[in-house]
Specification:
Rossmann fold; 2 domains; about 15% strand; alpha/beta; 9 helices; two-stranded antiparallel sheet
Length: about 300
């Protein structure tokens, strides 16, 4: 009986100690998961910081970074961006244009660039140059120009971040960034990844285009980024004129200029600023206004 009692005593002791161990294991589960989540969050923050540092290094020799943006497609945003870049280059500035319009990367065709970027020994991309403008576009990485790029938000973010980090622009006075229209992931990624000097908004005179332009302006303002001004495109008899200027007054923004709808744009072999003196003069006026706004920002930052 003594042995039996001793056996039972050992058995009871075992049970008495087992229960607290099980409770302890149950408590460690949530704590362990929380710790893993915290580590993952820290690693993500490190990667994000590393990306931003790499982007800052890649763009560190660029004086002005200017987005060309619109609230909707079909307003001639890419045409405006390309001709602005060419006009600045014709005036002697060192200029690049970055096309991050994921859905429709048309800068390569608009600028008539035939050669792809070169890859350096340190695996950096060297943009090809056309009309004095260095060109980089998502279009270089399409197998076929007409293929549709169907990407979700994270893929868009990663692609744009990689392009920003890997391109070697060298010394530039201006980098114009042709963004996709609307308020989706791609423009948001650029606005959050780069320290932008400001945005040029492209609008047309029609009422619906003005409403969409207002949405894009409000997005930029929400992110505390400068709106350098509004350009009215497609101005003339067909769509009327003055809508872009009215929008600038309504939103309290500078009006940079009006671009007439001209037959010279039918010749797509070269940017219209190269083939037409009239078009070039219109863009010269826009460039003068743009430079004036950049100077005001510099004066304001110095105070």
């Amino acid at each position: 009986m003594t042995q039996e009692h001793g056996h039972e005593g050992h058995s009871h002791e075992g049970h008495a100690h087992a229960a607290p161990r099980q409770v302890g294991q149950q408590q460690a589960g949530p704590q362990s998961a929380q710790a893993a989540q915290a580590r993952a969050k820290i690693e993500q923050m490190k990667r994000t910081w590393e990306q931003k540092r790499n982007i800052a290094n890649s763009l560190g020799r660029i004086k002005y970074k200017i987005g060309v943006y619109s609230g909707k497609g079909g307003v001639g945003k890419t045409t405006v961006a390309c001709n602005l870049a060419v006009t600045l280059a014709q005036e002697g500035a060192r200029v690049g244009i970055l096309d991050v319009d994921i859905d429709c990367p048309n800068v390569v065709r608009a600028m008539k660039v035939s050669e792809p970027p070169l890859v350096t020994e340190d695996k950096k991309l060297m943009p090809p140059e056309r009309y004095g403008v260095r060109v980089m576009s998502m279009g270089f990485f399409q197998q076929k120009e007409e293929e549709a790029i169907i990407w979700r938000g994270p893929m868009i973010h990663n692609a744009i971040s990689q392009l920003l980090q890997s391109t070697d622009w060298g010394d530039l006075d201006y980098l114009l960034i042709d963004l996709p229209p609307g308020t989706s992931d791609a423009p948001l990624t650029i606005m959050q990844s780069l320290t932008m000097d400001g945005f040029v908004i492209v609008a047309t005179p029609q009422e619906l285009a003005r409403i969409d332009a207002m949405r894009s302006i409000n997005m930029i303002k929400t992110l505390k980024i400068n709106v350098l001004g509004i350009v009215e495109n497609f101005s003339g008899e067909m769509f009327g004129s003055g809508g872009g200027e009215d929008l600038a007054v309504e939103m309290g923004l500078p009006f940079l200029g009006r671009l007439e709808m001209r037959k010279e744009y039918r010749d797509t072999s070269k940017p219209a600023t190269v083939t037409s003196r009239q078009v070039f003069k219109e863009y010269q006026h826009v460039v003068e206004q743009l430079k004036a706004q950049l100077s005001k920002l510099e004066v304001g930052a110095a105070k």
